[in-house]
Each structure stands twice: as C-alpha cells, then as structure tokens.
Specification:
Aspartate Aminotransferase, domain 1, 39% helix, Aspartate Aminotransferase, domain 2, 3-stranded antiparallel sheet, 12 strands, binds pyridoxal-5'-phosphate, alpha/beta, 7-stranded mixed sheet
C-alpha cells in the first residue's frame, strides 16, 4: 500500500454516503433525500437577486438579519442563535468545540449516519446505543456513557419516530455534557424541544431550512441554545460560513413562515395518505413525524429498492442492522406518491 499522509482516524473512516443525486434533466421520481417537493417562498429568489449585486463584498460574519428573523419567529434572543452552512456544519462545529479527540460522543442507533463520520473525522469515539423496539429514549445508557456530547435526532431518521420530551429533559439533567437535539424534521412533527433550551444550559436544538423550508440547496442551518453555549461555538466558527446569498435566502424564508407551514400541511396530508395506501398493500410503517416514512418491506427490501430504481423511482435503502428490512420513502407530491404506489403494487406481489 502507498504511504498515507493522513491521520489514522481518517485512514480508517469511510466517507458519508448521501442519497443519489440524479444528473440535471434526468427524469426521476426523487423520494430519497427528504427534500421538500414544493418550492420555497417566492420572496427567497427576490432576496437573493437583490444581494447578488453586493457579492463582491464579504457577507455578514454573524448573520445578523437571519438571526433576528429566527429570534422573532421562534421567540429567542438573537444571542441565543447561531447560523450554520446547513445544520451539518453546526454538528461538526459542536464536535470540534465540545469533544476532545479520543473522548466520546453517544447517540442511539440507527440514526443519521453523518454523526459517525463527523465523530471519526474528529478523532473522537462513537458510543452507539441501540434504540429499544418502541424507539423510546435509552436515557440511562446515554447518560452513563461518559460522552461529552449526545446526539438525538427528533424526529429520528430513518425511522421518523420521536422521543418523549421529558425523557430528553431527564437526559439533560443526568448528562455531564451537551445534549444536541437535531430537529431537522421538527416542523413536520407535533411538538419540539425549544422548551428544553430555556430550561437547560447544556441543550442545543438544531434546525435546518433544508427540509420544511424547501432550501436544501441554499445550505442554511440554525442552532438555538443559551448564550454561553452559543458564545463557545462562535469562537470556532469559520468567519464567513454562510454566503450573502444563503443569508438572504434564509432570512426571507424565515420571514415567510406561513409559506413553509402551508407546504408542511400538504406534506403531512400526503404522508397520512401514503401510510394508509401502503397499509392496503400489506406494508406497515413506523409512526412517522417527519417528511418521510419508514416502510417495512421484509427480507426483499433491497430487491424492491432496485426494482423501483429501475423504474426511475429513487427511495433510500440502508444496509444496516434494524433497518435493512425497510425503505425510507420521502413524502413527495401526491402525483409522485401515486407513481410510487402504482409501482409497488406491481413489484411487491412478485
Ligand atoms: C437532513 C438532515 C440534516 C442536515 O441538514 P442540512 O441543514 O441540510 O445540513 C441534519 N440532521 C438530520 C437528521 C437530517 O436528516
């Protein structure tokens, strides 16, 4: 083997595998990466056009306008908010700021697989705790893991399940470290963990504009926590982590909450219909609080994934313990869901 110039942890790690992104112009029914099927608020494009004129100037390093909009929208102080280049950047920043290399980060699995990649890349150690069958929070195991940082995706991916807020509160109380509640899908759920931020200095809630706000391509994430935690993250932040265009897009989107909520309502209606129709095909789903469903297919899940792909329908298959019997299907438009159901009705009996 050729000599490697990388750190051992980098040599050992495998890169994060995102869902396939078809080439521009390729016609597929894309239900594999939990993007929103509806467009973002028209105010976003207007705002981005306006700031393009000033693109020769560096952007605001502290995202003043976006943070002010978020503070107003969700009832926080701007000083309790940090903006990231997607919530993925905020996850990476948290690990860098909170976890010394060699120390532990804990999370229940299966979950968002980027956690593992980021922890390994930092040279820290992942402590994974299996979700119980009912997907309640394995609070005791997480609290006693010795981790400096615990990730809980709520709703969880790829299952769509949510843990009880009082279990998260108990974890925040019991852990000598930071609890990060990754709320990428919270707008599609019934409640959220913002209340815990007000109660606990060691809780940070992460939001993204990628899913509910239809802005996955703009890369805008937000972190909400009490000031000391935000101050610490600001110290290690890249100075210009969001472009002028991303900042303008994010602020315009957050100032048009009604647009987002209308799209979320449509997605939730389609989700209910999708779960019902899958049930009629003999496919059960975990109770999803997100913009995707996790459908139990059985031992042939991978074949069904391949058969759908051959028909131009992309969903997500994870060859991992606990989830290799199922498919994660993003809730698309009603028309997209109809195409999926029609294909499944043909594929499944075979
Ligand atoms: C999509 C997703 C993210 C990433 O969001 P970005 O803001 O696009 O980086 C984070 N966490 C979970 C659980 C997600 O599914």
């Amino acid at each position: 083997m050729a000599k490697s110039y990388f750190r051992e942890n980098v040599d050992e790690m495998s890169p994060y595998v995102p869902g396939e992104q078809p080439a521009d112009g390729e016609r597929v029914v894309k239900l594999n990466t939990n993007e929103n099927p509806y467009p973002a608020s028209p105010r976003v494009a207007e705002a981005v056009n306006e700031v393009m004129v000033d693109a020769r100037l560096y952007p605001d390093p502290v995202a003043t306008g976006l943070r002010a909009a978020a503070a107003e929208a969700w009832g926080f102080e701007p000083a309790q908010i940090i903006a990231g280049n997607g919530s993925d950047e905020l996850l990476a920043m948290l690990i860098r700021a909170v976890v010394p290399p060699g120390e532990k980060v804990a999370y229940p699995v299966p979950t968002y697989s980027l956690y593992r990649t980021l922890v390994k890349g930092h040279g820290a150690e992942s402590v994974t705790v299996q979700w119980p069958d009912d997907y309640t929070l394995p609070m005791k195991e997480l609290a006693s893991s010795g981790a400096r940082l615990v990730f809980v995706a709520r709703p969880n991916a790829p299952t769509g399940t949510v843990v009880a807020l009082d279990a998260l509160a108990a974890l925040a109380r019991g852990l000598d470290g930071v609890v990060c509640v990754d709320e990428a899908y919270a707008d599609f759920a019934e409640d959220n963990a913002f209340g815990l931020v007000r109660e606990f200095g060691n809780v940070i809630v992460l939001r993204t504009l990628s899913k509910s706000f239809s802005l996955a391509g703009a890369r805008v994430g937000l972190g909400f926590a009490q000031e000391p935690l935000i101050d610490g993250l600001n110290k290690i932040k890249d100075s210009y982590n969001l472009s002028r265009m991303a900042l303008a897009a994010g602020e315009a989107a957050v100032r048009d909450l009604e647009w987002m909520k209308a799209n979320v309502a449509k997605v939730r209606r389609t989700r209910t219909r999708l779960v019902g129709e899958l049930g009629r095909l003999g496919v059960s789903c975990t109770a999803s609080h997100a913009n995707f469903v996790f459908a139990s297919i059985g031992p042939k899940a991978r074949n069904v994934y391949e058969a759908l792909k051959a028909r131009g329908i992309l969903v997500r298959y994870f060859d991992e313990d606990r989830v290799r019997h199922g498919l994660r299907i993003t809730v698309g438009t009603d028309e997209e869901v109809d195409e999926l159901l029609k294909a499944l009705a043909e594929i499944l009996p075979a």
